[in-house]
Amino acid sequence: MIGDSTITVARQYLRDNVPPIAAGAIIHDNGCGTGAVTRAVLETYPELLWSSPKATIYATDIDPACIADLEKRVTSRGWNSMVKTKVMPAEDLSLPPSTVTHSFANSLIFGARDPPKVAAETLRSLAPGGVAVMTTWATLPHAKALDRTRARLYGEDHPHIKPEWYEASHVEKLLKDAGFAKITASKVESGMEHESMDAWTQLAWSWMGQPQGGWTEQNERDWDAHRSLYADECLKEGFQVGEDGHVRVHMVANVVVAWKGE
Ligand SMILES: C[S@@+](CC[C@H](N)C(=O)[O-])C[C@H]1O[C@@H](n2cnc3c(N)ncnc32)[C@H](O)[C@@H]1O
């Protein structure tokens, strides 16, 4: 739904924030979704596919549908010898201790059931000197627009993402408390584009507009009116409609990089 916004973030931190990934690396794409980090790693370092010693990417997610989708891509691209996909909760990683050289959790931590457990498991799985990257959103206009639309329509006051997750310092503290040795934070720019505001709200409202208790027939009758309210809130949050009718929005990610002590 959010297009290339997460792979755009991964491409930048792989280029600017993470030490080069070399042959023999053991990489974890934690909460991989449809594999944004896996794809960004293989775009940035295509030589890993035939490197010796062999590099491995473990691409894991709690959602079997994501893993099935990524598995198809892995097979169609011929990545099977390097990319191992598995359904796995980030709170309970079936990866051996002290083995992973690079652990990526792109847009995962704020949606996980137990973030401190995720941090602890990430540290446990990392090799001494290994690096972890966790990203969150500093600016996520469609989520803010969603919160206001849901508040107006359904009287809800719980946000899509808890406010503390917009601050990099929240992730820094989480990783410090877990025992990471060195931690840095920075921001990277991203964004998304959709064919039209109509296409965007059809997609977004069907994913995120459902009231607690499920859709009703009245919701069906109100579908266009509710989408229109959501479109107004998106525009207030900075969505821009171009001359081509495409809708674009600017997003900013927090990138927190943390090292396990030697
Ligand atoms: C916003 S998506 C990000 C996907 C991908 N990392 C990316 O950058 O595009 C969050 C992903 O985390 C997964 N997820 C949520 N909670 C999880 C958990 N506790 N353990 C593993 N994966 C989880 C979701 O199923 C979803 O695929």
TrEMBL record:
Transmembrane segments: none annotated. Residues 29-133 form the Methyltransferase type domain. It comes from the Eukaryota. GO terms for molecular function: S-adenosylmethionine-dependent methyltransferase activity. The keyword Oxidoreductase does not apply. Keywords: Methyltransferase, Transferase. One of its GO terms (biological process) is methylation. This is S-adenosyl-L-methionine-dependent methyltransferase. It comes from Polyplosphaeria fusca. The lineage of its organism: Eukaryota, Fungi, Dikarya, Ascomycota, Pezizomycotina.
